[in-house]
Design a protein that fits this description.
By secondary structure, this protein is an all-alpha fold. The protein has a single domain, classed as Growth Hormone, Chain: A (Up-down Bundle), CATH 1.20.1250.20. It is about 85% helix and about 0% strand. It has helices at about 1-15, 20-50, 50-70, 75-105, 110-140, 140-145, 150-160, 165-174. The longest helix is centred in the last third of the chain and has 30 residues, at about 110-140. The protein starts with a helix and ends with a helix. It is a multi-pass membrane protein. Its main location: membrane. InterPro entries: MFS, MFS_dom, MFS_trans_sf.
Length: about 170
């Protein structure tokens, strides 16, 4: 949802912060660059320390960087926070797919990854609704506070999701 929050908030950010088109475009580009880097870093880390632990870290990085957007008007801070949020989001996607692939039988992987993708589309609709309610009444800063909510998800992930047998066996073999 947060990656889309940026899209919905961008016109308000441009107006409030007097951003040029180039500066606004750079915010999105930096987010994407962070996602690329996060996918690489956390994909490797997930292979080393475990998917569940790594996924939890990515959610926390993403959520904290997103929530901190509510407290800044400095373009350099925004660039930094969006880069960090991108790193978390990029890691989330790759590690999430690995978790699905390892925790479901081969005949269900397609279905489960499709459900995950549908979840992303539902998140997009939810982001639009949340942005439509929050931005006109509370402003774009407050929209990013909603991005902190996934931290609650990490509690449930760590409590209820365990490393796959496949991952544990692969680690024992090393």
């Amino acid at each position: 949802m947060d990656v889309l929050f940026l899209s919905f908030a961008m016109s308000s950010m441009i107006k409030d912060l007097h951003l040029s088109g180039g500066a606004a475009g750079l915010i999105s580009s930096i987010t994407t660059l962070g996602m690329l880097l996060g996918g690489i870093i956390f994909g490797i880390l997930g292979d080393k320390i475990g998917r569940v632990k790594t996924f939890s870290h990515t959610v926390v990085i993403f959520a904290i960087a997103t929530g901190l957007m509510a407290f800044t008007n400095d373009i350099n801070h925004i660039y930094m926070l969006r880069f960090l949020a991108g790193i978390g989001a990029g890691g989330e996607y790759g590690v999430g797919i690995a978790l699905i692939a390892e925790n479901f039988s081969h005949d269900r992987i397609g279905k489960m990854t499709s459900i995950a993708a549908i979840g992303g589309q539902i998140g997009a609709v939810m982001a639009a609704v949340v942005a439509a309610v929050i931005i006109p009444t509370l402003g774009w800063h407050k929209l990013f506070l909603v991005g902190v909510l996934p931290v609650v998800l990490t509690y449930f992930i760590r409590k209820h999701l365990h490393e796959s047998k496949q991952f544990i066996e692969a680690k024992k073999a090393c």
